[in-house]
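Researcher: Structure for this, please.
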Amino acid sequence: MAEVVSSVAPLVDESRQLKLLMDHVSDHAIYLLDPDGRICSWNRGGERVNGYTAEEVIGQHVSIFYSPEEQRQGLPQQTLDRARDQGRLVGEGWRVRRNGERFRASVVIEAVREHGALLGFVKVTQDITERYQAQCLLQDAQRARQHLQRFEGVGRLTRGLAHEFNNLLTTVGNALDLIALRPGADARTLDLIELAQAAADRGSLLTRQLLAFSADQTLVSEPVSVPQLLDEALPSLQRVCPQTVRMRVELPPELPPIATDGVQLHSAVLNLVLNSCEAMPQGGTVTITACLEQRLAPDAAQPTLRRYVAITVTDEGAGMPPDVAERASEPFFTTKEIGKGSGLGLSQVFGFVSQCDGFVDVQTAPGRGTTVRLLLPAIEEVEHA
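Model: Predicted structure, token format:
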């Protein structure tokens, strides 16, 4: 039998070994830069990560992977200067592909020296966008969970006080009703009874807000279509807005239903709209939107993705500084004048949403308005075999 001789050259040439090694690393962009930052070599991973072919990129400056703003700030050259001075630079940031798409990159730059002279740089780039997004989702879930834990202790105290307060108000209200029924009461007495009854009604509303915050109210949970509920609630929401405030509603035609108390959800959205109107004394636009999102459940023992219907209320007001935003959902905390508000509006929203196994996300900054998002679990469809 004739001996079969392979036509494949053995891997004895070191330069060939290195080229094969670099070309077969497809998930990392590995390339050389000259001392001025121009690209001298390019591997297959560079084409996959950055989108450029070797013919398009060799000879170009490394700054083509940075955004125009970062180029104007001189960030590419600053990065090379640090790598030259420190010998090695490790970091991450946003980079730009050939098609203009931004991606999160993990970057390592090594200065290459021979006899003390700088010959150039070796740069390794990895696309870590998915990992970065997962970390952001986990951080959001952790922050939401911390909010829930923070209010548990206050909620227990509030629950007991609200029940006791409600019992006292019931006694006061019944006594006022009996006094009003007694014959011979003059007009002055009836006026005083009416004022006292109004105060008792206000106190009753506060107890309901306290119970909502403490998650001890009774919810009539049933499947609710968010687009339908908001569409039906729109007239009442518009009525609470002053003439200087315009309301804009953008709702998708179809969203999965959520299991909640429609009346309480209406009340929560109403609270947010009122807050938005008060944040814009000179007028502006309140925008209400809804969408379906996949988020990590903040109360799950293990990170678990869950579908949520997100109801978003956005205003164009002055926004809140970080110290105020941090306390905005605390019960009784308010920046309004004494007698202008109880400080329970947003805490009621937090309590109701947490009772529905959801969470609240608040985004605000001075001069950028405020966005409050209610994330309520969607009813999952059961698959039949």
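Researcher: Any notable elements?
Model: Residues 129-181 form the longest helix (53 residues). The two ends are 60 Å apart (CA to CA).
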